[in-house]
Each structure stands twice: as structure tokens, then as C-alpha cells.
Amino acid sequence: MPKKDYDVIVIGTGPGGEGAAMQAVKAGKRVAAVERYEQIGGGCTHWGTIPSKAIRYGINKLTEAKSYLRSEGLQVDISFPQMRERADDVIGKQVSMRRGFYDRNDVTILRGNASFKDDHTVCIDDHQTYEADHFFIATGSRPYQPPNVDFEHPRIFDSDTVLDLAFTPHSITIYGAGVIGCEYASMFRNMGIKVNLINTRDKLLSFLDDEIIDALAYHLRDQGVIIRHHEEYEKIEGESAGVVTHLKSGKQIKSDIFLWANGRTGNTGRLGTECVGLEPNSRGQLEVNENFQTAKPHIYAVGDVIGYPALASAAYTQGRDAVLHMLGEAENVNRPADIPTGIYTSPEISSIGKTERELTDEKIPYEVGHSHFKSLARAQIMGQPIGQLKILFHRESLRLLGIHCFGVNAAEIIHIGQAIMSQQDEENTLEYFLNTTFNYPTMAEAYRVAALNGYNRLF
């Protein structure tokens, strides 16, 4: 049998594709990565995580500066397009760095759209064909666009196109109160823009712990965000000077711009999956087993294209783990419960493990330890008193069951708890936090305070 062109072909160069490609080439495999856009990095680098978080950082710094300058009788205003310019600088640095990874490791970049022709062959832009022993699909996702919403209208956006907003609006209606909707609600409100957040469900981010959900809803409203729960749109009407959102409840909400943030679709439409017997679900996502294998064992899929948890951090790890399985070095590598959430609202949220609701339903005897940031010296010094760290632990064994953080640096703080949860034994339980000396003043000290608070509830 003639030798195939490559051992591994990775389709997509976002975090999942990069993780798979780098792990495979380090194992001595001949690897090619397919990218249909001009620059590598995928949606994470160009339309999702990197630009939105760079803009968020700039907005937060602007908010701090405004507060200081106002006390000095001064004023400063920076437009949304100016915030985007800084994000472009970060994107350029990320693309350059990641391109270096592929160049230094001799991973071939194939430019164009990949489409399967048979079980071991893909065609690039209907021209050149390449064969491989294994394939890793990491094509990501894009915002879902319902057919009855006119996304060609200059004032109607999705979470990709809103990054190219050419002016700073006075008001915005955000339809969808998932992670993306809540993050953008915080960002725009921090710029002083009036925000209407339309939630199709009964509460925000229902996968979070109820106490964290309540805190997020309270602080969004306290900042001035108008939240409307359990609403669905009837019609989105674009006008010359704004957009009117007609809700099925009869309400009409007019704003300068409209942002659709309700659902995403896996990028599988041009993959030719029918040629290899793979059928995406109604959301365009591919089903995989506990090792990220599709119905074709030599074809793996990772990242947003397989759905939950749809995080850049998770995608990179999934790519690496899928290759380890291909190499015969790991089994049962799909472990979504081990992945922390990171939600960049203001304040931000991060959590790992079980919620109180889940532990109650499972009848697990647990106790709660709290540390309120307003009591931490470091939070007081930073002027960031809003938030808390919450530890859930077993009443008898003291094993850590869940950690939930709401407040400044939550996405960083969570990793201390994650590390201990992942290696629990007789010493690495709640007692680790009781007996460990933390630098003072730090935000990490919240673990000691929360552990003592919870431990004292046992007696």
C-alpha cells in the first residue's frame, strides 16, 4: 500500500487544532493543518476570546480612569472603535506567535477549505487532494443566525460582526443571556451605554451555582442593565436610526443597535461529512465518544464543533488528549467535569465542580465556606470589594466538592482550588487551605478565610 501524504491532518488552526497538531508532531508524526482563512488562529483569536477580552480589559481600565479623573474635575471618552484598535494589536501578536509554533515544528499549513472525499482523503478548495491515516476536526463554531433576522442591516449584529462596530451607540438590545450575552452586557454597560438584556430562560446562566447566579443578576441590575427574563422575539425590525425588538409578550424595545447572542452553530456545512458517513446534529455539531472519536474511529473532533463546554481552554486540552488516545497513551480523555468555567462579566465568574443544587439533588452531605471580598485587605487596596469565594466540601471527609468564585480575578483564583481538587488525598482536602500559609495581602487568602468559615460550621 502506498504511503499516505500525512499521518495526521488537522482541520482548523484554533486552540483545538493547535493542541492536536503540536501533540502529534511532537510524537514524530507527519502533520498538516488546514486553514481556510488568511491568518491562523481560528475564531478564538480573530472573533471570539482574544478580541472580546482585549476590548473588555480596555473598557475596565477606561472605567477606572474615568473614576479617577472625575474626582480631579477632568473627563475622558474613548470610542468603541478605539477599543477595537488595541484588540487588533493583541491579535497580531497572537497570530505571529502561533504561526511560529507551526513553522518551528515543520507543520505544513494547507490554505483553503477542506472537504472529505472518502474515509482517508480530503480535498482543498476542490483542487488538491491529500490522504492521511487520521483526521482531527477542529473547525469551531459561528453565531447562529435565524433566517427571519436581517443581519445585513447596518444596526443588527451578531457576536462576530459587533467587533467591527464603527461607532459608539447610546443604547443596545442584546438577545440571549448566555455567557456571550452577559459578557457583552457588562462591557457595553461599563462604557455608559444603556443595555437591554433579553433572556429566553427564567434565570441567567443556569449551569452556575444559584448564589452566583443571584449575585450576577443583582450586580448587572445595580450597574443599570435592564434584564427581561422568559421572553422571545416576534420580530426584529431594523430602522434607519435604530432597531425595534418586538417580543411575543407584546413589548417593544427600541435601541440604537441590536446584538444577537442566542446560540452557536458548528462549522460543519462545508466539510463533506456525508462522504464519510458522519451526520452533524441540528446545531451543526459532531457527536464524539469518551475519546473524542466520531463514528469513524480514525476521525476525531474537538473544540466548539462538538459543543459543550465550548471553551478555548478546553479545546486545546481536548486536541492534545485526542492525539494521546490516537497514540494509545490514554483512554477516557473526555472529562468536561474537570474543566473550570471562566465568564468575563464585571465582576468575572469562575467555578469548578458541583453546585449546591446538584449536591442537594444527589443527597450528598455538604457544608459551605464563604469568603467575602469586602473583608479581604487586597480587595480593599484594589478598590474591588464586590465578590466572594465559595467552597463546597463533604461534611465528613472534608473532600472538596465544588468551588465558585465571583469577583475580581475569579478566573485566576479558581486554579488554586482546581489544583487541590485534582489531587485529593488525606491531606489535600479542605484541611490544605486550613493549614497553608498564604501571602498577605493577596486574593488567594480567600481560600483560608472560606475554609475556616466552613470548618467552623461543623461544630
What would the keywords be for this entry?
single chain, alpha/beta, FAD/NAD(P)-binding domain, 3 domains, seven-stranded mixed beta sheet, five-stranded parallel beta sheet, globular
Tell me what you see in this structure.
- This protein has helices spanning 15-26, 42-46, 49-71, 80-104, 179-190, 210-223, 312-326, 356-361, 377-382, 410-421, 430-435, 446-456; strands at residues 6-11, 31-35, 108-111, 114-118, 121-124, 128-137, 141-143, 156-158, 171-175, 194-198, 226-228, 233-239, 242-247, 252-255, 257-260, 264-266, 299-301, 341-343, 349-353, 366-372, 387-394, 400-407.
- With 459 residues, the protein is an alpha/beta fold.
- The protein has three domains: 6-143 and 265-338, FAD/NAD(P)-binding domain (3-Layer(bba) Sandwich); 156-261, FAD/NAD(P)-binding domain (3-Layer(bba) Sandwich), CATH 3.50.50; 347-456, 2-Layer Sandwich (Enolase-like, domain 1).
- Strands 1, 2, 3, 4, 5, 6 and 17 form a seven-stranded mixed β-sheet that branches. It has a five-stranded parallel β-sheet with strand order 8-15-9-10-11. A five-stranded antiparallel β-sheet has the order 18-19-22-21-20, sandwiched between helices.
- It is globular.
